[in-house]
Specification:
The complex is a heteropentamer, with 1 copy of chain A (301 residues), 2 copies of chain B (328 residues) and 2 copies of chain D (276 residues). Chain A is α/β, with parallel strands linked by helices and 301 residues long. Chain A is built from 11 helices and 11 strands. Chain A has a 6-stranded mixed sheet, sandwiched between helices. Chain B is mainly α and 328 residues long. Chain B has one domain: ABC transporter involved in vitamin B12 uptake, BtuC (Orthogonal Bundle). Chain B has a two-stranded antiparallel sheet. A two-stranded antiparallel sheet of chain B has the order 2-3. The radius of gyration of chain B is 20 Å and the shape is globular. Chain D is of the alpha/beta class and 276 residues long. Chain D has one domain: Rossmann fold, CATH 3.40.50. Chain D contains 9 helices and 12 strands. In chain D, strands 6-9-10-3-11-12 form a 6-stranded mixed sheet, with helices on both faces. In chain D, helix 6 links the parallel strand 9 and strand 10. The radius of gyration of chain D is 20 Å and the shape is globular. Classes of the chains: A alpha/beta (301), B mainly alpha (328), D alpha/beta (276). The interface between B and E is medium-sized, with 24 and 25 residues. The complex binds adenosine-5'-triphosphate (2 copies) and magnesium ion (2 copies). One adenosine-5'-triphosphate binds next to strand 2 and helix 1 of chain E. The site of one magnesium ion has 2 residues of chain E, from helix 1. Chains B, C: Part of the binding-protein-dependent transport system for D-xylose. Probably responsible for the translocation of the substrate across the membrane. Chains B, C: Its main location: membrane.
Chain lengths: 301, 328, 328, 276, 276
Amino acid sequence: SANGSSATGSDAASAGKTTIAMVTHGNPGDAFWDVVKSGAEQAGKDLGATVTYQGDGDPVRQSQLIDSAVATHPDGLIVSMANPDGVKASIEKAVAAGIPVITINSGLEESLAFGAQTHVGQSEYAAGQAAGKRLAKAGATKVICVIHEAGNTGLEDRCRGAADGLGSPVANVQVDIANLADAQNTIKSTLLADPTIDGVLSLNPGIAVAASQAITDAGSHAQLATFDVSKDVTTLIEAGSILFAVDQQPYSQGYLPVVFLTLQKRNGDVVGGGQPVFSGPGFVTKENAAQVATYAAHGTR
Amino acid sequence: MTGLLRRPEVGALVAAFGIFLYFSISTSAFLTPAGVATWLYSSSLFGIMAVAVALLMIGGEFDLSAGAMTGTTGLIVGIATTQWGLNVWLALVLALAAALLVGAFNAWLVTSTALPSFIVTLATFFILQGLNLAVTKLLTGTVAIQGLGAVTGFDQARVLFGSSFPLFGMDVKISIVWWILLTALATWVLLRTRFGNWVFAVGGQAASSRQVGVPVRRVKFGLFLTTAGAAWLVGMLQLFDVSTVQATTGIGQEFVYIICAVVGGCLLTGGFGSAIGAALGALIYGMALQGIVFAQWDSNWLKAFLGGMLLLAVLVNLGVRRQAGDRS
Amino acid sequence: MTGLLRRPEVGALVAAFGIFLYFSISTSAFLTPAGVATWLYSSSLFGIMAVAVALLMIGGEFDLSAGAMTGTTGLIVGIATTQWGLNVWLALVLALAAALLVGAFNAWLVTSTALPSFIVTLATFFILQGLNLAVTKLLTGTVAIQGLGAVTGFDQARVLFGSSFPLFGMDVKISIVWWILLTALATWVLLRTRFGNWVFAVGGQAASSRQVGVPVRRVKFGLFLTTAGAAWLVGMLQLFDVSTVQATTGIGQEFVYIICAVVGGCLLTGGFGSAIGAALGALIYGMALQGIVFAQWDSNWLKAFLGGMLLLAVLVNLGVRRQAGDRS
Amino acid sequence: MTAAEPLGAADARTPLLEVRGLGKSYGSVRALSGVTASIGAGEVLCVLGDNGAGKSTLIKVLAGAHGHTEGTLLAHGIEQHFASPRDALSRGIATVYQDLALVPLLPVWRNFFLGAEETVGHGPFRRLAVAAMRATTRDSLVTLGITLRDVDQPIGTLSGGERQAVAIARAVHFGAELVILDEPTSALGVTQAGLVLRYIARARDRGLGIVFITHNPHHAWAVGDRFLVLRHGTSLGEFARDGITLDALTGLMAGGEELDALGPLLGRPASAGDAL
Amino acid sequence: MTAAEPLGAADARTPLLEVRGLGKSYGSVRALSGVTASIGAGEVLCVLGDNGAGKSTLIKVLAGAHGHTEGTLLAHGIEQHFASPRDALSRGIATVYQDLALVPLLPVWRNFFLGAEETVGHGPFRRLAVAAMRATTRDSLVTLGITLRDVDQPIGTLSGGERQAVAIARAVHFGAELVILDEPTSALGVTQAGLVLRYIARARDRGLGIVFITHNPHHAWAVGDRFLVLRHGTSLGEFARDGITLDALTGLMAGGEELDALGPLLGRPASAGDAL
Ligand SMILES: Nc1ncnc2c1ncn2[C@@H]1O[C@H](COP(=O)(O)OP(=O)(O)OP(=O)(O)O)[C@@H](O)[C@H]1O
Ligand SMILES: Nc1ncnc2c1ncn2[C@@H]1O[C@H](COP(=O)(O)OP(=O)(O)OP(=O)(O)O)[C@@H](O)[C@H]1O
Ligand SMILES: [Mg+2]
Ligand SMILES: [Mg+2]
């Protein structure tokens, strides 16, 4: 795995230290975005660049954070676009100021139009779609999608994608990530209320653990799939409690753009050539779970 | 009749009964053993905190940091066991000590500055919220602690906090037992001990209480420490149930506790309320929360429904109190 | 000296100056035109609401629904224009009417039941939060409304709410102008009009005010409507700035407004405070929020930092008031 | 500024206010009945009575807060039935309540004008006439013999007597011909009470009629022209100053007889020094 | 239950409490000086004085809330310097403050025992002796001649007189030999005040010493054995019942002379009916 004290960064030749700002729509404490952040920071360490990270789910405040980051004149800007309209003006401002921008995660469609150099990652919708297809293949017909943060666009997109991938409507169930024990109750209640449910899609590893227990408690035979991996999730996959985990490989979504922007500064490279770089989705299944588990424990998967 | 109406929990009792009937009749899963076990469990987690918060409110204070504190305690145990390899029981004690420290800090600030506890605990809430996230990230590299199931001694502690036992065909979670015990204990303390008498007195009229020798400061310390202790317990119950804990655990729950206490008949202004009322408030909340799911309503309406319920409950309580001729 | 110290905003002024100096010196971007424009803009959105909430708090009431209401108004305009094809200006009026209705509802409940506004507006907060999500989802199928830029008339309205103009090399957002104007207006109203006099009186001693003929009920209505109006304005400023609105907009911000007002010297108990103080409180908040970005601190600590700041601010204010010999 | 001939002495023949057989019931509770009294310009009518005697009820009727249910009330000789305090106020009757209706944190001048603020300008530019109100407040207070350091200090920082004075000055300023004072001296020490009595005398000398409610017969005696004694909601009579002595008044109002009746129960002989 | 020979008359020779030249300064403010008085069992000492006279200051010293700064204080003939209210209480001196230190929403019996609850059981099973406390409350009140419908009703629903009675009964119950009452009748009507005076007489008859603070000389006269009159923090003397008349007392305490001195300023001749 990546070695923090890699020598690549120490002999950074170009003028001054490279600084790269990352501003996402992830609220503080969000497990997915935390891994993205870890990836970016590790890349910074590896390459001898300073990476700053900020995140706010509200488009107004996200764009303010972008403006603030731009005011510090970084060598590169990385932005996620859950709500492309919301950050459009700020991104264009950054581009106008001559700061290279890379978009990550969602916003693939608008990325180039806004003046970004490339897009790393893959939209939540597409990831959801892939998950839906895979669930369909496993025989699920009636699936619920557990939203752990009310009104979060990214999560809604995943569920929408899942419905389209599955080819039949998916009911959204709302729970609160701040109360996992009760989230488990709500999932259990849902399964009790409708025993015909045969698939559960969770969007967070913590919720996945709760959901797996809820399925057992409710005596349901629903198959469980989740987004994102964690140590517990890999264990559950190995045990067969979880069918698969969609891995958008958030670590790469954080790591790669930092590499690209550093390369551009040092070497003038423009990776991607105007085409997006897909970071996933990878699927973690019984076959590769053991291997992924070690990374997940370090917060890099 | 008036005497009965004057009890704080009458409104909540009627409401709880109504909600119980409604969901029992309109959904098929609500009254099944598995269904009952679920909404009872849901209620119990809110209820334990609601009872503690109700005591605090009767004593004339608020605690907005209670929700975040449930997260803090869980995170401490998680970090201490998985990162530092501490013994589970030691970690439990460590977490309890930390919670009590925060409670004591709240109490100390409130009693020594006479600032409103709303502001003081709002600040603590923010601080805890920040620390939960930042410290967890710093020490573990992630924002959620997992792998607790593999910690030695985890299963022993789980008996106390995360187990369940069969009863009437239900799979009863141990937290329900804690809830009932603590509600009974709180009721007993409130109505049958000196401390309880003092809690009412301090919330009803702090100055008078001081004059007759009630140790106001000590009572407030006791109340904040009780809330902290309850936060620790709920943190443990959640942790050992799902064997994972997020850095964001508990945020936003502080309002729920206050809502349960108010629905249960506690006055925001102190000096009036009951532990049973708060427990009933939590029961209403838990039944509604799971009942909505059983009824397969669109969960997007959840918050609106809960808001309406709160409004209705306080209006009913108000009406009941007016009926009883109580103008305080 | 004592007279000066007695002004509510002294503490906030000192703190604002300190934070300004700190970030100006320790970061290079804070004082650049682009930097200043950003933190001013950030402050302005908090500030407009904080000033309105401060008026309400001086008048002795709370509004926890103010945050969610900024979302409601934005969503109404978004839905009305993109879904129903309503004219932008009509949609603006519709949103304003809806906000005022909610404000009037709050005021009506508070004045006619004498329930604490904390509970009443907590209920409204939950209801709005639920409606924002459910209705948006129902009508649009998503939780965020986009494509507003394409609505006819959008650009006209944007001049009022979403434009910016160059000044001293800065790109000044129009919301900063609104903020300054409203702070000035609120200060003028508070100190130089009958209504302002009544606001202080109602918050300071409602019973006495009623006796000398102050229309207490009307004043409270006025204050809740002002908060609602401010929520509408902030909703519009946000909407026309980013031309998108999410169903979760504004949730959690209600505390921020109260914090800004309290940091600016408002008493939670009413009857004391100032609009300028609240504006300074928002300035502190905005500077800190963006200053942390400039200083490249780990954003995980943000909340803890803000909590500490709140604590410090109220303690400083307390000290200042004690110095000034004011025991109220 | 010292004692002078009452300015309004000439008008004293038609009373400013007169009540005949006045009564007031709250539902079945008869709080007041058969009260007859009158008050002219430049006169002080003292209303005395123990707690619950009906003093506040009488004031509330005079002030227009409650309508009377029996008898007649005449202002300037014309029968009236006040519907509201504003109604009474418009006929020149102002009331200073015991709690003074002051807002402690507000500056003196804002309290002085609270609910009746003076404004300048029109439409949206209508604003408080701050300078004028400050000056008026200062002047009104000086007229009553009070000089404050600063009319901008919160009224909560004034002494009880000063606060009474502000309230009286306010009533006088707002064109009252008749000022009703509800126990203005009851919460004050001797010195402060003396000051308030002096303010009452000043106001009387400026030709105002004053209804002065108190339970201290000494205070009443110091400034009163007529004395109305209430007990249990009925009038024990209205006495002119020369028709009664302080001792008699004291005995009447404090319920000396009733206490004497209690005497045996208290294990004391009927007291030798009692006034009636 | 009616008037009887004071039970404790025999002990009256060594006073329960005696003060000699007692004084108290708050920093530079000399709130009280040179007060000499004594009170024996079965005696009522009335402390009279206008507002600000120093009555509360005297009580606070006797009750142990503040230490004295001059003179001596003797309980049962032994010199004392009380450090706290508990200290005074342990020497049998209980104080009933003017605001009564009651919690309105709490039931009567809980208020009765507040701060001194009786418990049964041990360790974690120690609990309130509810039945016993209810019974005690009812009995104590009956001894003073009060029968409540329900000792479980919130004390805020009792009348002022009843609340005073509960407070007095509480002081008596908790073993006080000497009960200090701060203006127990000032907020009450004649009937209620009469009741309270009767409770005082009952307590006295049971052998208690009573310090009764009031500004109503009639009330003092009705039950008092000795009278201590304060003005501006100094004693105008302690008088035995047969050494003074009610009139003299009235004049002394209400500051009749001072008001007379004000006379010319008020535009009145020095009043004819004044008592001194
Ligand atoms: N709103 C009311 N409804 C019913 N009874 C009332 C009402 N207001 C007063 N009373 C009764 O009328 C009687 C006279 O009361 P009032 O307040 O006039 O006495 P007061 O002389 O002003 O006493 P105090 O010196 O205590 O102010 C009392 O017995 C009181 O209980
Ligand atoms: N804590 C204190 N610090 C300074 N001065 C005080 C303090 N307490 C009382 N005084 C002063 O001592 C004097 C006597 O006050 P005290 O309260 O004993 O009077 P009182 O006779 O009880 O009056 P009232 O009838 O109003 O209760 C007053 O001038 C008062 O201002
Ligand atoms: Mg009265
Ligand atoms: Mg006193």
